Recover the amino acids of this structure.
């Protein structure tokens, strides 16, 4: 079963743009969406804690380009959603992610 997990994590969907706190502080993903990618390396996924102020979200220094497979290693609960086509949005409702 571990081998299957490793294969799934290697699905090359590219990079995501993620709030640095989600990666560095391991904060929970509270909201994420997929839009049309910006370039060939970009998957179109954007990840937020859901607690960002507009000012925080408007500051590009608070976000980073990050490999999708690495984000799944930190937050495996998002993996099942990553093959969804754009446009799509999800948020945490306290017990699970729901499509909005």
């Amino acid at each position: 079963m571990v081998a299957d997990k490793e294969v799934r994590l290697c699905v090359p969907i590219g990079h995501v743009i993620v709030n640095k706190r989600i990666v560095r502080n391991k904060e929970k993903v509270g909201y994420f969406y997929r839009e049309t990618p910006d370039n060939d390396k970009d998957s179109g996924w954007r990840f937020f804690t859901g607690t960002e102020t507009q000012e925080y979200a408007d500051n590009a220094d608070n976000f980073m380009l990050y490999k999708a497979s690495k984000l799944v290693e930190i937050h495996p609960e998002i993996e099942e959603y990553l093959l969804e086509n754009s446009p799509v949005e999800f948020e945490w409702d306290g017990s699970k992610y729901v499509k909005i």
In short: The helical segments are 2-9, 20-24, 54-58, 68-74.
